[in-house]
């Protein structure tokens, strides 16, 4: 299986069954987002200061965004093989961290733990690439909704693990790391059969729109439930029976997307000829997307006589066909995409937006302690839910903007960057009263940017090499996180030394607004830069979106000849 071609599964249910399986993989593969739950245990076990701990958070960011290799291989390997590689990485990475925290192994060196966390997070990148590329190719006309749903569930990962952490694992970082070590590979093995390519539907139907709406509503219900369960756990003392019941309900809600293929099985409907776009069941190999020749022949009447003469000459071998450079909206090769200014604008926006946001997430436990909020689970749950809401809402709102107004999705990025300027200034106050509001706003903005950039990159540069192109853009996340986390750790440790000067105190935590004030001023300035870059991108790509969505729905442009 090479060049993006893979054996496809017949029937109308497999794409939706694959989407339901992808939901589980996105949730379980987001273990790196729980770093705040076990970061203090790592800090104690290693005897590390805040700078070294911050670099461990960077390891998670580096691993999570080193998706270039799976992006390349997703066109050559079956998704199941990508999932197996990701499962192995999680087993080794989280297993090593568990050995350190549990004391089951002798003291492990700092560099080994850094590499283990990077490896475990990279396992999540393999999982995300497999499910995201496969499902966006299965639903090419609804890529905004698909990206929003999958990245939305990924955003809920931290809240799901937090519920397990407080309700079943007894607030034990050791138990959490053991769950990640064994649980992620188990889910991969159980779901890998269902994540597979199918010939895409190129006709939008009301039934498909209803199915996507159901999946979105199911994810919203899960998010609201998780926030409610987390708050309930902190308001009243729950016994084991109630805790296990809450977890059981959460698991049932995670199964909700699978109700779509179940409904299609129990209540099948007769397809019209225009909807007969599913693949046959003869097991032969077909491309996942229509070829350029098929697209050109489908629009044969649009060519003038000179074009027809050239096409006939090419077909007879009289002249050698030339491959023109693709226009924005068509399929780009990776080496062609990196020559475009839009590509590097997306990279820079990702750097200042997502890179800064992940820095706050990695230091959320210490930010809470500095503001007087010792319990990290509430902040993490709020961030997780709002991150999910931003990812899901970003996909849905951006779909409305491009279809109803033909406005670029990057308009949403401009709005979120402006909000993030204000949010970082709220964080800089270091007040407990504004902490949760700030976390909520940051989660929404972070989630919107995460999902919208995925759709933008696929629309500007096509789906054929989407995995490779997007995963390279995602490298901006760890680069930004490394720089911002280095600054954060340096400022934090300076303030700790100032507060503990002349004191005999074993407390290595920093207290008060000065711990992160300078950091948040810098992040606010970065958000100002992101606003400017997003505005430039929006002005540049407006004509592209007017072309792609001129009829109120996505229209695939004619690709260049290959």
Top keywords for this entry?
562 residues, mainly alpha, two-stranded antiparallel sheet, 23 helices, 2 strands, globular, disordered N terminus
How do the strands and helices of this protein lay out in sequence?
Blueprint (H helix, E strand, L loop, with lengths): L4 E3 L6 H15 L6 H12 L3 H16 L2 H6 L5 H24 L7 H29 L4 H13 L1 H11 L5 H19 L14 H30 L4 H15 L4 H8 L18 E3 L4 H7 L6 H12 L17 H4 L3 H22 L1 H7 L5 H29 L5 H19 L3 H30 L4 H8 L2 H25 L16 H32 L14
Question: TL;DR of this structure?
Answer:
With 562 residues, the protein is mainly alpha-helical. It contains 23 helices and two strands.
Structural account:
The chain is mainly alpha-helical and 562 residues long. 70% of the residues lie in helices and 1% in strands. It is built from 23 helices and 2 strands. It has helices spanning 14-28, 35-46, 50-65, 68-73, 79-102, 110-138, 143-155, 157-167, 173-191, 206-235, 240-254, 259-266, 292-298, 305-316, 334-337, 341-362, 364-370, 376-404, 410-428, 432-461, 466-473, 476-500, 517-548; strands at residues 5-7, 285-287. The chain has a two-stranded antiparallel ribbon with strand order 1-2. The protein is globular and about 75 Å long.
User: Any idea what the shape is?
Assistant: globular
- Count of runs of 4 or more consecutive helical residues: 23
Radius of gyration (CA) equals: 24 Å
The amount of helix comes to 55-70%
What spatial order of strands do you see in the largest sheet? 1-2
Transmembrane segments: 81-105, 111-133, 176-198, 210-229, 241-262, 343-361, 367-389, 410-427, 433-457, 469-492, 518-539
Subcellular location: Membrane
Membrane topology: Multi-pass membrane protein
Domain NFD4 C-terminal: 339-545
């Amino acid at each position: 299986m090479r060049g993006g071609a893979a054996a496809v599964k017949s029937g109308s249910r497999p794409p939706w069954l694959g989407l339901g399986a992808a939901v589980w993989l996105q949730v379980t593969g987001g273990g790196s987002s729980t770093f705040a739950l076990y970061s203090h245990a790592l800090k104690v076990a290693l005897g590390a200061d805040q700078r070294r701990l911050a670099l461990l958070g960077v390891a998670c960011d580096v691993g999570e965004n080193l998706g270039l290799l799976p992006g390349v291989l997703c066109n050559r390997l079956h998704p199941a093989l990508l999932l197996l590689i990701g499962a192995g990485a999680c087993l080794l990475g989280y297993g090593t961290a568990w050995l350190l925290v549990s004391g089951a192994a002798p003291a492990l060196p700092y560099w080994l733990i850094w590499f283990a966390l990077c490896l475990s997070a990279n396992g999540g990148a393999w999982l995300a690439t497999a499910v995201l590329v496969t499902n966006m190719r299965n639903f090419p006309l609804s890529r905004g909704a698909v990206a929003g749903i999958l990245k939305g569930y990924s955003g809920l990962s931290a809240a799901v693990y937090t519920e397990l952490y407080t309700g079943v694992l007894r607030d034990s970082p050791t138990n959490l790391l053991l769950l990640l070590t064994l649980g992620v590979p188990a889910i991969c093995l159980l779901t890998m059969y269902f994540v597979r390519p199918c010939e895409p539907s190129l006709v939008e139907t009301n039934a498909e729109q209803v199915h996507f709406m159901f999946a979105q509503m199911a994810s919203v219900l899960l998010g609201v439930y998780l926030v409610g369960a987390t708050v309930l756990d902190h308001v009243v003392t729950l016994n084991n029976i109630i805790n296990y019941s809450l977890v059981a309900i959460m698991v049932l809600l995670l199964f909700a997307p699978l109700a779509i293929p179940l409904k299609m099985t129990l209540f099948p409907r007769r397809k019209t000829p225009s909807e007969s776009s599913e693949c046959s069941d003869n097991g032969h190999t077909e491309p996942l997307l229509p070829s350029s020749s098929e697209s050109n022949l489908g629009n044969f009447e649009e060519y003038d006589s000179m074009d027809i003469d050239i096409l006939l000459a090419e077909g007879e071998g009289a002249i050698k066909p030339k491959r023109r450079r693709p226009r924005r909206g068509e399929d780009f090769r990776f080496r062609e995409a990196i020559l475009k200014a839009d590509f590097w604008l997306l990279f820079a926006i990702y750097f200042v937006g997502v890179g800064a946001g992940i820095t706050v997430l990695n230091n959320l436990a210490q930010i809470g302690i500095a503001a007087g909020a010792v319990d990290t689970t509430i902040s993490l749950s709020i961030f997780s839910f709002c991150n999910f809401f931003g990812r899901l809402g970003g996909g849905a709102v951006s779909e409305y903007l491009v279809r109803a107004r033909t406005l670029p999705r990057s308009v949403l990025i401009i709005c979120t960057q402006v909000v993030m300027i204000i949010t970082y200034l709220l964080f800089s106050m270091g007040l407990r009263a504004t902490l949760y509001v700030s976390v909520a706003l940051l989660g929404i903005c972070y989630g919107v940017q995460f999902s919208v950039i995925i759709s933008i990159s696929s629309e500007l540069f096509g789906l054929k090499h989407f995995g490779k192109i997007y995963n390279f853009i995602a490298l901006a996340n760890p680069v930004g996180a490394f720089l911002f986390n280095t600054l954060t750790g340096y400022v934090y440790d300076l303030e700790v030394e100032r507060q503990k000067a002349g004191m005999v105190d074993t407390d290595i935590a920093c207290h008060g607004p000065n711990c992160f004030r300078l950091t948040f001023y810098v992040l606010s300035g970065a958000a100002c830069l992101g606003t400017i870059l997003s505005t430039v991108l929006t002005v540049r790509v407006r004509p592209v979106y007017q072309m792609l969505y001129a009829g109120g729905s996505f229209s695939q442009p004619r690709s260049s000849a290959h």
